[in-house]
Amino acid sequence: MRILLDENLDWRFQLRFPPKDIQYWADRYDYGDDAIEDIAPGVRRRKFLTKKEFLAVCRWKSPRSQPRCQTNSPGFVREVTQIALSAAEERLRIEVLTLLVGVSWPTASVILHFFHSDPYPILDVRALESLGVKGPVQYNFEFWRNYVYCCRQLSRRYKVTMRALDRALWQYSKENQK
User: Same structural domain for residues 46 and 106?
Assistant: First the structure.
């Protein structure tokens, strides 16, 4: 299924499985520990992450980043995540998170996905593959904006949560990778 974005957007995404199967793939999702979902309500209320919560997110997304992520001070983690979770400007929300040592676009997307009040997808090679994106991608704001727009459109159109859509995209790729 082709998701048509505004003509002034640079990227085109194509869902590689029928939209009616989104919930099927989401229900098959098995990534192990989703403990981050347990801390989400508290973070959403406070609108910032503690360093301990931040490290849990980083470990969940990219365990290899732990040594670098640990070098961030608790105060810096709090302030940066507070800005990201309360900023009105879309670009600021994602890009400020990359100021944290060890945080690139994919990890920043996890923070927005689980803790922002607006729906955000997780930027992941598996999810992108399920949307027809092949090969390495240079992440930048334009690509991110288009990806978010596409996923929000899918979520609304097919009446699934962003979490369910994210799980479906990830699981489909896992089970169908070449």
Answer: yes
Cα gap 79→56, rounded to integer Å: 17
pLDDT attached to residue 132: 93
Residue 161: give the domain boundaries.
2-32+121-176
Measure the CA angle with vertex 67, ends 62 and 71; round to 5°: 115
87 and 59, same structural domain? Answer: yes
Give alpha helix (H) positions in 18-134.
22-28, 36-46, 51-61, 66-69, 74-86, 90-95, 105-115, 125-130
pLDDT along the chain (178 residues), means of 10: 48 90 94 81 96 95 92 98 97 98 97 97 96 89 95 96 96 90
What is the three-class DSSP state of 13?
strand
CA 101 to mean position of chain CA atoms:
18
